[in-house]
Amino acid sequence: MNSAVLSYHDAILYRSGERYRILAGAIHYFRVHPDHWRDRLGKLKAMGANTVDTYVAWNFHQPSPDAAPDFSGWRDLGRFIDLAAEEGLDVIVRPGPYICAEWDNGGFPAWLTGMPGIGLRCLDPVFTAAVEQWFDHLLPIIASRQASLGGPVVAVQIENEYGSYGDDHEYLRWNRRALEERGIAELLFTADGGTDYYLDGGAIEGTWATATLGSRGDEAVATWQRRRPGEPFFNVEFWGGWFDHWGERHHLRDPEDAATEVRKMLDLDASVCIYMAHGGTNFGLGSGCNHDGKRIQPTVTSYDSDAPIAENGTLTPKFHALRREFLQAQGIDEVPELAPQFLEEPPVLPARSLPLSAGVELLTLARAAGNPVPSVRPLSFERLGLDAGMVLYAAEAVFPGRPDAPSESTLRIAGLNDRAYVWLDGVFAGILDDSTAPDGLTITGTGVPVRVEILVENLGRINYGPLTGHGKGILAGVLVNQRYTFHWTQTPVPLAAWGPAELEQLPGVEFSAETPADTYVALPDSGKGFVWINGFLLGRYWSVGPQRTLYVPAPLIRAGRNTIKVLELEKPGTVVELRESADLGEADNAEIAEALLPA
């Protein structure tokens, strides 16, 4: 077996026998248009980094169990790794199978987590068998590009932040063996929060333990010196920024504050990876969700994360602050000027406002989205084989009362995940979500059967914590007062698979572009929904903010005629705006300070 290029001894890291320090940044290929991969990697190198770090999102490659994983086009992980090598970067790969990353379902395919009774992230044989099949496809791409074979891959992670989830060390050892048996010979490592609690659950003997944290790095170094005295300290996720949830405020972190924290660790001879160096975008339905114990917290479409390299590739003040620290860590005190191409602002289309045409009504669209599936009780997304999008549930129910003496009842949805739009006999009755579903909707009944139609939207699958893998749709049932309603039909609405026939029915606008360039789509008088550009599902928008514009990278724009289509769920608007800069919402610097502290 080839020997690993990276090694450590007496808490010192070596590369090919020479003392070494990893200066890295995270870029996720699945969040960056492939035409921009080289640009973003080149800018990471210009920041003074010697390594790029990426997760691998299983569900991005294999959304269906009936087809082999796809590694072509946007999913060409091998090409991304090869481009990093061409830019002079080493590569760290984090194949999971769980990745968190604020990505839908933590990277797990919904068909996997929807298997009845499956035990996730433990030595459940159903789970490990599926992971082994995935690794059989994935790991040859990584193994063939290892540094010991002349490639750029210098390290591979075992699982991800397991100490935040479980304590099955046998499962971690199995994960390690699964990598080694498939040819991974470079340095393996685990990654966990910077405290004893996380190390207790996620670190195993004989494997390098690395840290994930955004502050108190010196305290974490001291913990490692006590708990892992022979290992060099590596913060594989330094949270220099933070992500946003819909309905909250935009997070920013002061560049000098981030740089000071990095310097604190570098002064202690640590290695550091900036998470994220370039965040990119949760295109399509890729956004995940958190859960605070009371309600779901869906992540916005942008994954800019206040990163040093902004969502559109612009170099921010944080880039220059961290570049200074990275270069000084390499003994370069006089920071050289950047090459002009790195300082150029990406071109943008001229701003304009475009009237939004009319389209087919939402309920009509949902009814025609596919073939209804009958059942006695409501079926979840997983039972229907649908990973994302929406499902229209329909049944007949009787609300107590008489035509001459109407009375009020309550319509409740038990086990609602995540947001429901309710119609009675085709008349819109209201919206329920996980916080209002227990209270339900007050309905005036006359004792006459009513057709109940409920369109349930999946806001993104939970990506972190004990609820990872939680189902979507109506998981328990629909009640009129305390009485269940039975005999349903379900019509899946697979938004990610919509093509020209479906999109033709949506409201839209057309515009011309002389030359492809970036733009930012805003829907200032719309409520909540989805946007397609030239048939590509860009992502969600929502008037609750904080995000007000959706980034459209230039490769999605055509020279000549372009089309934007909009599926509005709540408040149809009249206009689509193309803007020249991003609006990610009002910022809150206070919240991020608490978020970055180790638990």
TrEMBL record:
One GO MF term attached to the UniProt entry: beta-galactosidase activity
Keyword set includes GTP-binding: no
Single biological process term from Gene Ontology: carbohydrate metabolic process
Keywords associated with the record: Glycosidase, Hydrolase
Catalytic activity: Hydrolysis of terminal non-reducing beta-D-galactose residues in beta-D-galactosides
Domain Glycoside hydrolase 35 catalytic residues, every copy: 13-324
Ranges for domain Beta-galactosidase galactose-binding: 510-562
EC number: 3.2.1.23
Domain Beta-galactosidase 1-like first all-beta: 378-493
InterPro entries the record matches: B-gal_1-like, BetaGal1-like_ABD1, BetaGal_gal-bd, Galactose-bd-like_sf, GH, Gly_Hdrlase_35_cat, Glyco_hydro_35_CS, Glycoside_Hdrlase_35
Annotated active site: E161, E237
Family stated for the protein in its record: Belongs to the glycosyl hydrolase 35 family.
Name assigned to this protein: Beta-galactosidase
Organism of provenance: Arthrobacter terricola
